[in-house]
User: Fold this.
Amino acid sequence: MTLSRSLAFALAAVVTACSGAPDAPYVASHVAFSASPTVLAPGGTVYLTLTNRSVTAIGTNLCPNVLERWEDSTWVPVGHIAVLCGRIEHVLGPGTQLNSVMVLDSSALAGSYRVQTIIQILDDQVTAPVVSNTFTVQP
Assistant:
């Protein structure tokens, strides 16, 4: 490899390392979305906490919150998911959190569930999904 080529690769690495905000998958991997309790009955209340453990601000309005059930080795959306979401209502800086609740339908089937929501990485104006831990519905 020639010296000029080596310098070009080194410059590209420095520019990449020093450029802008972290990418969406990295930020999303540092956002915790927890659901509690871990076991509840149909019609029960799920308490949701979104915690920003990344180094950049994120935006959310916890919309849509999509409830998913584990069926046949895949996650399947449950209930009505066609939701029109407004603009960002909450900006979470690094180390901050947001709490919300979701009430399950009284006809929810027994099984494993999780909640998926969308965050926006404000530095680069892209969105990324985040999912909660799983919880169990038992009649």
In short: The chain has a mean pLDDT of 82. The chain is about 15% helix and 40% strand.
